[in-house]
Predict the structure.
Amino acid sequence: MKILYFTLHIKVVKHDFMVQLQISVRLFFFFFFFFFKKKKKKKKNIYSQPI
């Protein structure tokens, strides 16, 4: 019984860790994309301005 509980606990912890990892990775990519787009937009605006 104890062993079964232990394996179940490990599975739950592993699953939780994977979920956390996925969330952090998504957040990272979201921020990266946002920052990159912002940077690109700024550059574009500089070029589109009449001299």
